[in-house]
Design a protein that fits this description.
Two copies of one chain form a homodimer. With about 170 residues, chain A is α/β, with parallel strands linked by helices. Chain A has six helices and seven strands. Chain A is globular. The two termini of chain A are about 25 Å apart. The interface between A and B is large, with 37 and 37 residues.
């Protein structure tokens, strides 16, 4: 499972998304920044999550999606539109990439149209929007729920050798 | 469904929890502030959610839980401990109150011990904690999922007359 952040400007939001990813066991996150530079995620605010989550940067949607497709991911963009499927009706036990967008405009039209599917969180309030890190967490933990139910957490997907390598990589980061 | 916030100090966190509540259709929130005054939720940051969510204030855990029990709520506190049940194994389709705690210490021992049950979100990362508004949203939307699956959203729980009254109350708030 992976998360794609598209043009999220506020470093606090980037950090908060990373923290949600870490908590849900997501270890790789893709960043697409087409209209601005990659945000400088302050050492302090993102502190721990940045250390555990691997970031991959792309300059456009196409490059990112191409790479993810090559790696076997099905790409779901979060977007408010009629053909969006409820998060709870999507099978999240496969290799899925979740695209979350900008604080103000959501994901771009290009990122939505090129995705394999559109999902949305059913909401019942008057505001009809969630902070991006909150929405990401709700989606990721629904995936966690489905994966627990499917017995996918019973064994680690990493071999002992891979785990040792990961631990070494982490140890070498500040 | 209702949420109990215990001694959450940061007004931004209070606002963020209220926004998550609104999105999940929670219309009543309880505040327990034993060690500090009730936070002044800035008009700007909490903007919309504060308008739609009804707040009830308590000076101690006992008064709050007593009131909720009288109203028929089962109270679940979020707390890290061995006897905690996974969120995904708890029936959230009944009348449930979710207690979320302070940013730093979580819910108090009193609030945990007096609750009817302890729940936790299964986490897999290195940090093992979520921001309080994120955790609240993950719990509330699991309840939403269960309630959708149980067909509880097919009809409004409000009569037309009650809805008209609610709309009037909202219209009168700034």
């Amino acid at each position: 499972m992976t998360v794609v952040m598209e043009n999220i400007h506020d470093p606090h939001n980037v950090s908060a998304v990373l923290r949600s990813c870490d908590a849900a066991g997501v270890m790789d996150v893709q960043l697409i920044y087409t209209d601005v530079d990659f945000p400088d995620i302050g050492k302090k605010s993102s502190a721990s999550a940045k250390k555990w989550v691997e970031l991959r940067r792309f300059k456009n949607v196409n490059d990112c999606y191409k790479k993810l497709h090559e790696e076997g991911f099905t790409i779901f963009a979060t977007h408010l539109e009629k053909k969006a499927k409820s998060l709870f009706d999507v099978n999240m036990t496969k290799k899925v990439a979740i695209v979350v967008g900008n604080e103000h405009e959501g994901v771009s039209l290009e990122a939505a149209q090129s995705a394999d599917g559109i999902i949305q969180i059913p909401m019942f309030g008057m505001i009809q929007s969630l902070n991006v890190s909150v929405a990401t967490a709700v989606i990721l933990f629904e995936a966690v729920r489905q994966r627990i139910a499917a017995g996918q957490y019973d064994k680690s997907k990493y071999s002992d050798m891979e785990l040792t390598k990961l631990l070494k990589t982490w140890a070498m980061k500040e």
